[in-house]
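User: I'm writing a tutorial on reading structure tokens. Could you give me a worked example: one chain, its sequence, then its tokens, then a sentence or two explaining what the tokens reveal?
Assistant: Sure. Here is the example chain.
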Amino acid sequence: MESGIQSFTQLRHFIGVVEDRNDPQELGRVKVRVYSVHTESNQDVKVEHLPWAMVLNPITSASMSGIGTSPTGMVEGTWVFGVFLDENEYQMPLVMGTLLGNPSETATKTRGFGDPNEIYPLDEEDLSVLGESSVNRHARAETAEEHATLIEKRTKRVMGVKTAQAPKVSQVQPDKAEKYYERPSFDEPNPRFGGQGETYPSGVPQSVYPLNHVQFTEAGHLFEVDDTPGAERIHWFHTKGTFQEVQPDGNRVTKINGTDYEIVIKDKDVLVKGNVNVRVEGDARLYVKGDMYTEVEKDYFLSVGGDYVKKVAGNEAKEIISDKATVVNRNVFETIHGETEHIKVGQFTETLANTHTESIKGKEEIKNFANTTRTVSSGSAEPPLPPANMKTLVEANTVFMTGSDMLIQADATQVVSSKGDQTIKTSAAQQINVGTTQTMSIASTQDITASVTDINNNVNVTGTVDASVQVLANGIDLDGHVHPQTGGTTADGDKSVDTGASAT
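And here are its predicted structure tokens:
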């Protein structure tokens, strides 16, 4: 190129139209059909015969080793301004910039000075139409709402996103004040001006020309830097609908129209001084390889719509500073393979509204260090039989009280033992049924006090019976009864003996 440059004193300026940008050397060069040099007929000078024009980059681009901005923004049909570096040879064009306008007609393949692919200028209702300024609608405030990107964002706003609410547990505690028992929701903020409404909020200015700086690509990507006072924004939009916008009030709206990946190689610190709402409509997984710390200074609400499954490979330690209330509306199953120890410092009350079944395959030991009271309601059924071996140790007094009948049953031998005195007392009748022999061993005196004692079988007495009361035997009063003397007389000649009040 340097060998073809003779002098810059007689450079010829030109205006032309880009007709090819597929530079085989990928230097950003374009082929330009130049007015007053080339004819309108692309048959006189075909596109493939046009020289490649270099492109002048801005000083903000290094144009070296891939550093800077790629010189690939032009499309077929772009109007450009430049100079020929080879004076009248017209083989070394240099494009210095592009020209804007109001295109009035579409290009054709048979006519030059246009896009031979018949794509540009666009004539699409939601982007740009013929006769319209080539400046992007976003940069022209009055037409911004007619641009495809803004139409899509408003059409696809996510509304009524429901968030978590506090579960009501009225069976164990009353509702707490100022909690989210009614499910809250939020809407995706409006694009450009923000807020939840459909129209511009009062007092918020709109973008004005020429303070909104816009870059739009042919694929549909959009970049905005809005310097309008009171409407300052930074916005980028991907053609698939993913965007991020920093709105005039400083709020940031990020929408990922696909899958979002975030990888942090080192640490990440997050501070949120307000509230956080997170809604996940699919599954959520959190995998922590190290320790995990969760601290809640106020109330912690957890609501699970399905099963709650928890597995702890190590120990579980839990401390409750205040009260604990639990309601289980169905069954409870608990399996403990090791030892179980319950230490209850305060009063313990257990209420069973239905049947209580307890199976003990090993030894059971119960120790009560104070008084024990056991109450069974009148509607309770017969209690189940205890296990093979059962021992109850009570180191103080024990009282069994029932409002109705009490049954003590043993299918084998029953032994009632007392190291002190034993008293059996009933306010009504007492009945003792013995299936076989009854043996009573009394080491000392036995006293029986009864108004009437009926004995309905034989009585064998070994020893002496001393009766100090009137004794009736088969209708005979033994008190003062006299038996006649047989076979002799007394010392005084009587033939009878007075038995007196006693008999042997």
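What the tokens reveal: The longest helix spans residues 148-155. The first strand starts at residue 12 and ends at 20.
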